[in-house]
Task: inverse folding
């Protein structure tokens, strides 16, 4: 059983980059990809916090990109050939949460803090600086990815679940 989330992370990152492409040449493409991958990784680690969770999604599959394609209006051209296979590994909730993280520094910091002590971080410690502290060049490279109005249709799909995951008891225990 595959305990890592690399197929989900790779496919969901690819989907975000196709839906919200970077502008400005090859360096911008790399910078945008790093930011998207970091956001998707944090979102995937939040969504599937244990090796058991990751193994189950690897067996069952995450659901694919069909609804996301519809939400962003990319469902008018049906994918074919190799373009179909990777799309089956896109996780709608992970894409939505990643969009939330890319557009809110506060949520990104909370999410990184939440995953920093989890199973995945222990197995593969990672810094998420381009997600939580993007430089101006990072922001310029990922203008569409980080634009809250443009990503709102995707981010709004599962924002409430993300907020619950990050703060399961907002009122506090009394």
Result:
């Amino acid at each position: 059983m595959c305990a890592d989330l690399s197929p989900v992370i790779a496919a969901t990152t690819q989907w975000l980059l196709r839906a919200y492409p970077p502008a400005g040449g090859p360096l911008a493409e790399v910078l945008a990809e790093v930011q998207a991958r970091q956001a998707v990784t944090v979102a995937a680690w939040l969504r599937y916090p244990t090796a058991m969770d990751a193994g189950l999604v690897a067996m069952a599959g995450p659901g694919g990109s069909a609804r996301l394609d519809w939400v962003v209006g990319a469902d008018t051209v049906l994918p074919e050939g190799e373009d179909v296979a990777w799309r089956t590994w896109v996780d709608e909730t992970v894409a939505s949460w990643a969009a939330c993280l890319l557009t809110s520094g506060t949520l990104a910091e909370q999410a990184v803090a939440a995953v920093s002590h989890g199973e995945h971080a222990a197995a593969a410690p990672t810094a998420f600086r381009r997600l939580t502290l993007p430089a101006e060049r990072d922001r310029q490279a990922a203008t569409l990815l980080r634009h809250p109005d443009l990503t709102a249709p995707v981010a709004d799909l599962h924002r409430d679940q993300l907020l619950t995951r990050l703060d399961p008891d907002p009122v506090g225990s009394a």
User: Anything to note?
Assistant: The mean pLDDT is 91. The longest helix spans residues 26-47. The chain has eleven helices and no strands. Residues 6-163 form one domain.
